[in-house]
Structures are given as C-alpha cells and as structure tokens.
Fold this protein.
Amino acid sequence: MASIMAGNEKVEIGEILPEELAQRLKRGAPPMILDVREPEEIALASFPGATHIPMGEVLSRAAELDPDRETVVVCHHGIRSAQVAMYLARLGFERISNLSGGIDLWSATVDPAVPRY
C-alpha cells in the first residue's frame, strides 16, 4: 500500500507486482488495466487488453472509468501510474492499484516479448 495526504485526508492505493498481475489475468475476472502512457510509448510496447488514456487526459476522461471496478494503472516505470492512481483514489476509486515497476518490469519478469525502451 502507498499513501499520501490530500488535504486532511489520507489516500491509499494498492501496489501489485507484475508476477501477481500475470497470475490474476490467467485466473480470469481480471481487473481493468488503465495504461496512462503516451501514444508513442504504446506504439513501442503495448500492454495487452489495456484501456489507454494518456496521463494528461485522465482528468477530463475520468467519467469513462468505473470507480467500482478494480483497476490497475500502468505506465513505463510505475511513477506516473502511481500519481494517476492517487488522483483516482482521491476521486473515490477504492479498488485502485499501481503496477510496480511498470511495463518495463512486466517485460523483464513476465513477458519478454514486450519490448523494453
């Protein structure tokens, strides 16, 4: 769990390792994967089955997301996705997690067919 203070409110998000996410995806009933990278990054290395909303568009497109659905946020190394996950948690998303290490660690530990950049 990671947490920050947003005003007087403590906001928490989950952290999930690539191996854990891979196991969850194989078992079925997967969480929604929200990829917040830029289009040129997606073109280099896509995350299968992910919904793509660039980080800069999340504020204007948050209504497209279901706050009741478990969501894992993904970026290149896990820094931007952690910021987006914290933002969504402040909006009331209670089942939100960050992919630790991002797609880079996913490629290194789960799926080497995904190019590293």
Q: What stands out?
A: The CA atoms of residues 33 and 49 lie 7 Å apart. The chain has one domain: 2-109. The helical segments are 18-27, 39-44, 58-61, 79-90, 102-109.
